Amino acid sequence: MRVKSVHVAVAGATGAVGNQMITCLEESNFPVKSLKLLASKRSVGRQLSFRGDRLPVEEMTPGSFKGVDVALFSAGGGTSKEFAPIAADKGCVVVDNSSTWRMDPAVPLVVPEVNPHAIKGYTKKGIIANPNCSTIQMVVALNPIHRKCGISRIVVSTYQAVSGTGKKAIDELFDQTRAMIHFLDYRKQVYPHRISFNCLPHIDVFQENGYTKEEMKMLHETRKIMEDDTIAVTATTVRVPVFYGHSEAVNVETRQHISAEQVRELLSSAPGVRVMDDPGADVYPLATDAAGQDLTLVGRIRQDESIANGINMWIVADNIRKGAATNTVQIAELLVKEYL
Ligand code: NAP
Ligand code: 12T
Asked: Mean of the pLDDT values across residues 106-116?
């Protein structure tokens, strides 16, 4: 079957995620007829490479989306809120990376390995939401277990890389680390405390219930993607001094019993997953294994011996790739192939 070729725009093309989106479009042989690169006024005059061409970065304005079929957004929540409806009005389908539209009942929230069928709901608003990075890698690994034996509760602690916050946070970890090892004064701009040689139990903003917004996203988004509002989720999300790759310690309680060996076997053939689990040989997934590739890596699979039906595991993925850009491009690929 010949896939039709489309006019694409990347909004936030100069950012950590937008830049990776351009790379993912190249790597996936996405059927791009033309590519428009959008960012703020500050970036006008810059050029970025795509398939051997140098393309100009343009300022995003309401007129930017005329003639664009698919727009991949990663230019911040405020920008998505303002521009996604404008783009959709012009007949463009938006795949949005911000948290703005994720819980809107008229907007599908999609992880292709889990709920690809939900994409068809794009027609309601012309917007499809890409989930939060920590949630994506968790549901890729847990959905096969949920389908087989029913997950009743998830307890998760995350170890999240600074690249999730964007370019400025990557620089902050680098600059603070350099200052520390040279005994110089360090500066804080992005995070409220020093991130180098530290762990901050604080991602996104605090809510009235004492949880952070990141922790609450893991509850609400997991239920929406897995299409099951009975799953209980409790999360503690922590920023660690790692550049790329989020790690998660996950405990699941299931309705039916499953052994660690059965989980290992189930996940060995699960889409988008690679099992790396050989403690005797010191094999378990690391952020450095995850960085630069698209699979969700799972290891340390073992029985939770404190309850009847429980499993513990360690889940790692590249937060900028599968956690953001890759998942967005995979959604757009399915959209073009099956629906446009
Ligand atoms: P970043 O590195 O700070 O990049 C931000 C991008 O947005 C830049 O291209 C910037 O352009 C552009 N931008 C900012 N204000 C703009 C405006 N008024 N008009 C047009 N473009 C504007 O951030 P990032 O890490 O790539 O993240 C971008 C967004 O993606 C985040 O805000 C978040 O919503 C989303 N995100 C989602 C996940 C996820 O969990 N799925 C993970 C990370 C990020 P200039 O270079 O011109 O300033
Ligand atoms: N604050 O898109 O700082 O919901 O790592 C993703 C990552 C929000 C989001 C982060 C964030 C999102 C972060």
From this structure: 98
